[in-house]
Amino acid sequence: MQKQQSRYEILPGLTDEHPAFSRKHYTTHYYAPKEVLASKVAEHSNVDRVAIIGGGVAGVVTARVFLDEAIDVTLFECTGALGGVWAENYAGFGIQVPSALYEFPDEPLPEGWDFCAGEMIGNYINQYAWKHGVPKVTKLEHRIKKIETAVKGYILTIEHEGQEQQEQFDLVIVATGVYGKQDKFIPKWKGSEQFGGKILHCADYVDLGMAKDKHVISVGYGKSAFDCAQISTKVGKSSTMLFREAHWCVPRKILGLVPFEFATFSRFGAACLQPAYVAAGPFERLLHCIPFFLTCFWALVALIFQLQFRMPRVCIPEKSFIADFWGGHGILPHPNFFPMVNSGAIQAKKGEIAECKEKSVVLASGEELPCDLIIAATGYRPTRSFLPREVSDLKEKDGFWLYRQMIHPDHPNLVFLNSEVTTFTNITTPSIQARWLVELLAGNHELPSKDDMKASIALMQEWKRSSMPNAGAARAYMIQTHQIHYYDQLLKDMGASIRRKASGNIFAKAIKEIFEPYRPRDYKHIVTGEFKHVNGEAMGGKMQGHFAKKGLIFAVFLSGSIRQSLFLPVV
């Protein structure tokens, strides 16, 4: 019997030594014979070698997609493990959403993993990486020191064990994310040097024993600050959460009944989000034209959340829900958090540290608090000092503006993947971006002209700068729950259907498309590339309209139901 050829052996130039060759051991079941894109990528984009910087979820899924297309890829991770922020973090860290919202689209998390511990997610990421051969092309404890422009691609200066070496790549993908341990930010408080206790970033609060019998102050008002303040109550003498400004929180179930994702990750929820997306359809724009409707809607939402949480006065935000949301905030607190604040187990104080003393801190108000441990849940400030000067100089006060949040028109071979975008399903985003990128390199869709890309960026700048006054330096990468709209843009670019809810009759499908949350697994065939072979998922060059038709179908269906309930004839 004739030996069946490996799908890699049929590609010219690939041998057993090729880094992608071992990928044959990590096969996926496809709807059609897999035709890898390596040759098309080399021919169309002149890309043979690809470097990925960062071994978090973005780097892992990007390597998985590129390996599956037999592309020569090397992943550089500066720490000793894959997983990014999930490799190690503060004591008690975990995901703040149900498991079905934080998983690789082609690898569902097990049932019962909702709001699971961070260590579980870290293991899951590594299992996914091993399944797809990512560790075989990964260089751990390799730090990128410098990227220099070459005649073809870029030259990377890489540090490992105190030694530096250089390698050349045709394409470089920056997948370091918005948050990374190397970018930790701790304010420089007056008197820090005389403080007798410890000051550390929340990412380094890995041992709960640090708080034993201590007065602990967690600084900040985000998910990390909430978690650190809450877990410190287990062993600390006292636990205080100190913040300059309170932000709106979202309950896991609205009114204790409706899972929050129906309001945030559905097309209806995205349509109601103010401001309307820059590429919103007519149905959404019509909704936004109704005077005061959405303003009152979001005011009611904020009131419901405030009452449901029984927020103490100090924790009620001053800004409206939408104004605060576009400052980059969105917290799903543990159900016990506000009860612990109301009971006094956690002291919530509005203010800021003016000075540190040996065993206390003095607030700007003059109040003095006993303190042995300061946990700075004060975020991250990415610097990316390794970028070429001509690229880093392009960053503006409100961020780094890119086409499709990934590519600068003047530097198309230096791609930022999940590093200049914030969404709430942080595994789905790089998964779709990675597929979009590899299909682009293979010539299955094209970038617009440089002028058209700059025009698209200018349109995004105008929209965000006029409607997100509180976003500050995060404005350029702010997408938030407009993520469905953003995903639609990427899918349309690569000729994939944006209508990903399969159901029975046209009415049921319309309802699901509008009201059911979009979850990672809805994009499974995008990550694997199977969308090109699945009936109804490959649109090619076909125009994909907005959802006015779906809205009309639902409106007619709803109208008919109301008439029937009132015993009126349906005409």
Instruction: List low-pLDDT spans.
Output: 1-16, 18-31, 553-571
Number of DSSP helices? 17
What is the total tally of β strands? 19
How much helical structure, as a percent, in the residues? Answer: 25-40%
Mean pLDDT: 89
Q: CATH homologous superfamily of the largest domain, by name?
A: FAD/NAD(P)-binding domain
Structural class: alpha/beta
What's the overall geometry? globular
Count of the domains: 2
Commentary on this structure:
The N and C termini lie far apart (68 Å). Residues 1-16, 18-31 and 553-571 have low confidence and may be disordered. α2 runs parallel beside α12. The protein folds into two domains: 21-180 and 382-480, 3-Layer(bba) Sandwich (FAD/NAD(P)-binding domain); 183-376, 3-Layer(bba) Sandwich (FAD/NAD(P)-binding domain), CATH 3.50.50.60. The longest helix has 18 residues, at 450-467. β5 and β6 form a beta hairpin. With 571 residues, the chain is α/β, with parallel strands linked by helices. It has 17 helices and 19 strands.
Detail the topology: elements first, then pairings.
Blueprint: H1 38-45, E1 49-53, H2 57-68, E2 72-77, H3 118-131, E3 138-140, E4 143-149, E5 154-160, E6 163-169, E7 171-174, E8 198-201, E9 215-219, H4 223-232, E10 238-243, E11 253-254, E12 258-259, H5 261-264, H6 267-272, H7 282-289, H8 293-309, H9 321-325, H10 337-343, E13 347-350, E14 353-356, E15 360-363, E16 368-370, E17 373-376, H11 389-392, E18 407-408, E19 411-416, H12 428-441, H13 450-467, H14 483-493, H15 506-515, H16 524-528, H17 548-565
Helix pairs in contact: 1-12, 2-12, 12-14, 15-17
